[in-house]
Specification:
The structure holds two protein chains of two kinds. Chain A is mainly alpha-helical. Chain A has two domains: 81 residues, no CATH class; 239 residues, MetI-like (MetI-like fold). Chain A contains 16 helices and two strands. A two-stranded antiparallel ribbon of chain A has the order 1-2. Chain B is of the alpha+beta class. Chain B folds into three domains: 42 residues; 54 residues; 215 residues, MetI-like (MetI-like fold, Orthogonal Bundle), CATH 1.10.3720. Chain B is built from 15 helices and eight strands. In chain B, the strands form two sheets. In chain B, strands 2, 3, 4, 5, 6 and 7 form a six-stranded antiparallel β-sheet that branches. In chain B, strands 1-8 form a two-stranded antiparallel ribbon. In chain B, α9 packs antiparallel against α10 and α14 packs across α15. The two termini of chain B are 59 Å apart. Classes of the chains: A mainly alpha, B alpha+beta. The interface between A and B is large, with 89 and 96 residues.
Chain lengths: 325, 352
């Protein structure tokens, strides 16, 4: 029995092998040698691709169709995990929190990083120092930056509190008030928007001077030059940053995790206060590694992947109408 | 008419840069002040961080040396006269004070009549304290442990990335073999894959082979290629003149020799970029160590700092001191390799 089974696979293997050999016979010995060397050079990547990309992709796709907690055997349940999201209030909450961050956070950081890039593109002295200052916060490690902002936004002793107090505003309690937790995180994101500024700045420097001068000669005001020359010229960068921003927000995790843990009273509850910082990736983490529901978490990961793909495609498609390549 | 408009033009030319400076500087404060707040907090004494309203400058108790001992000074009110006295002992609202000028006489006063004297004094001691202080009771773990762990992971990740990505990039850039460009598209495609998709199966595999609570799940994958680094290296290798490699081939050099003796030595700038980027990723990585490391002895700085923050009674001054030490290597790297950083930002987000 065993022998015949082996023989079967062997013959299958042989036909496949002979086919590929026949195909390779068309190659000259030199091509064959090159092929071998080439494969040898990328062999580590091939192993990595199979073990750390292809296998986990297939496995998580499979998990997503099963009921699977780490210790229990996997039970095939078809699309039930995917159907579950429509009845899962926390999923909808996490999705709406993420959309909030995209609509307000990403757009605000695009507008402000473009504005900062315009400032940094002015021809004045000391500009290189200003550029460093605007950029530096973006390379502060995420955890350090978030901790710093937990302290800056501290409602009793933080410096933002003093500053607001000086102009007569009582600052909100950023960590306990579900209305203010997301704006708090947006401020943190804006502090680290240096990368967007740099990308916009390089785009501004690529805008042909002749184009701006031509508009100036035609009597275009500063605002008109900005609106009808500069903004269209950097629109491909806006598309790029918008897509990166959307992807980044779906993967937004470390800041939200540290922020929620720092909100004090409920250190163990992710997404606190009141699920207001329960973003998509945070919820996925919660389902996967707190509830150990690997099947549902895998489905959530795939939904995220699909949503990212669709929104990237939609943004690229719509950008044909408003961006100039 | 004409001279006036000329004057107006001149005035505008003088005034405009001034307003531009003011504007850039004001916006710059938003980026700068949190750094200063971080530094200011890191230099404050334990007493000073909880003072309301908080101050920018770090204050500490003014101290005086009496018989070889440093004692804090207080303004003590005795019968309408305020005297500067050093506190020997404070117990249950009662303080024992001595006059520094006349240390023999001990005066006992309720603390409500005593006001600590504060002077501007940075407390540098927070930095060594943050490093050596045991963070988790009973484990002997300190920030120094976390730094060692982060450095260990960074070292091996850099090694792995250099080995696996340079070879692969050479295979894609300098060798001509059938199917190469199709496979390179697959390499680029893997960049699109979110970490969250592969996270769960990888966790299952690594925990089944007993690799959780080791650095292996964080290090081993770096020895098997990374799409972004392969792309970066390939783009650089493509700029090395083909004729150089061909000349070596004519002389009978093997591909491995061309790779290691010609291409690699010419690629020092891009290798430096790979080292910097890998270091940044490892240093900044949060979710990876969160997944695989639960033993405080193995924590990296990123999750160690978070863990410390999650405990009660955070000493914010030491926390900020530790954050500064966490951030400083990256700031230093930035000043040495500014161009690399900017290039990396333009290619993709640095932190992701």
């Amino acid at each position: 029995m065993e022998k015949s089974g082996k023989g079967h696979t062997l013959s299958l293997g042989r036909t496949w092998l002979s086919k590929s050999i026949r195909r390779r016979e068309a190659w000259s010995p030199k091509t064959r040698r090159n092929f071998r060397t080439g494969i040898l050079f990328i062999s580590l990547w091939i192993i990595g691709f199979l073990a750390f990309n292809l296998y986990p992709i297939l496995a998580s796709l499979y998990y997503s169709f099963t009921e699977y907690h780490i210790m229990t055997p996997k039970i095939w349940i078809g699309l039930a995990n995917y159907a579950l999201v429509f009845e899962d209030p926390l999923f909808l909450k996490s999705l709406s929190n993420t959309i909030y961050m995209i609509v307000f956070g990403v757009s605000l950081s695009l507008i402000l990083s473009f504005s900062c890039a315009i400032l940094l593109n002015l021809k004045i002295r000391g500009q290189s120092i200003y550029r460093v200052i605007y950029f530096l916060p973006s390379i502060v490690p995420t955890v350090a930056a978030t901790l710093l902002f937990l302290w800056v936004l501290n409602p009793q002793m933080g410096f933002l509190h003093i500053m607001l107090g000086k102009i007569g505003i009582v600052g909100p309690d950023w960590f306990k008030d579900p209305v203010w937790s997301k704006p708090g995180l947006i401020i943190l994101n804006l502090w680290g928007m240096g990368q967007g500024i740099v990308v916009y700045l390089s785009g501004l420097q690529d805008v042909p001077v002749s184009l701006v001068e031509a508009a100036e000669l035609d009597g275009a005001s500063w605002w008109q030059r900005l609106r009808y020359v500069t903004i269209p010229m950097v629109s491909p960068i806006t598309v790029f940053l918008l897509i990166m921003g959307v992807i980044g927000m779906f993967q937004y995790f470390a800041q939200a995790y540290v922020f929620a843990a720092g909100s004090g009273s409920m250190a163990s509850v992710l997404g606190s206060p009141l699920h207001s910082t329960l973003f998509y990736s945070v919820y996925l983490w919660n389902v996967g590694f707190m509830q150990l529901d690997f099947g549902y978490a895998s489905a959530l990961a795939w939904i995220m992947f699909i949503v990212i793909m669709i929104s990237t495609a939609l943004l690229l498609r719509s950008s044909k109408r408003w961006a100039y390549y | 008419m004409f001279p006036r408009s000329n004057r107006w033009y001149k005035l505008q030319k003088k005034v405009r840069p001034f307003f531009q400076h003011v504007l850039i500087f004001t916006v710059g404060l938003f980026f700068l002040l949190p750094f200063l707040w971080m530094l200011s907090t890191a230099l404050k004494s334990d007493l000073d961080i909880y003072r309301t309203p908080p101050t920018w400058l770090p204050y500490d108790l003014k101290q005086v040396e009496i018989d070889g001992e440093l004692l804090p000074l207080y303004n003590v009110q005795i019968d309408d006269i305020t005297k500067e006295l050093a506190a020997l002992e404070i117990k249950k609202g009662q303080g024992k004070f001595v006059d520094p000028a006349n240390p023999e006489i001990i005066i006992e006063m309720p603390m409500k009549y005593a006001e600590p004297i504060l002077i501007v004094k940075p407390r540098w001691q927070n930095f060594p304290d943050a490093l050596s202080k045991a963070i988790r009771v009973g484990t002997g773990v300190s920030f120094l442990t976390y730094i060692k762990n982060s450095l260990t992971i960074a070292f091996f990740s850099i090694l792995g990335t250099l080995i696996s990505c340079t070879t692969a990039a050479y295979g894609f850039a300098r060798l001509h073999w059938p199917g190469r460009d199709k496979i390179f598209l697959v390499v680029m495609g893997t960049m699109m894959l979110p970490f969250q998709v592969t996270m769960i199966p990888m966790y299952v595999v690594f925990s089944k082979i007993g690799w959780t609570n080791t650095f292996l799940p964080l290090i081993v994958p770096t020895f098997f290629g990374n799409a972004f680094m392969i792309f970066l290296l390939r783009q650089f290798f493509l700029t090395i003149p083909e004729e150089m490699c061909d000349a070596a081939r004519v002389d009978g050099a093997s591909e491995w020799q061309i790779f290691s003796r010609i291409v690699l030595p010419l690629s020092k700038p891009v290798l430096a970029s790979v080292v910097v980027f890998t270091f940044l990723w490892v240093w900044n990585d949060f979710i990876g160590p969160m997944l695989y490391l639960t033993d405080p002895k193995l924590f990296t700085l990123a999750i160690g700092l978070q863990d410390y923050q999650g405990q009660h009674n955070v000493a914010w001054n030491q926390m900020m001191a530790a954050s500064i030490m966490f951030t400083l290597p990256i700031i230093i790297a930035f000043f040495f390799a500014q161009r690399t950083f900017i290039q990396g930002v333009k290619l993709t987000g640095l932190k992701e």
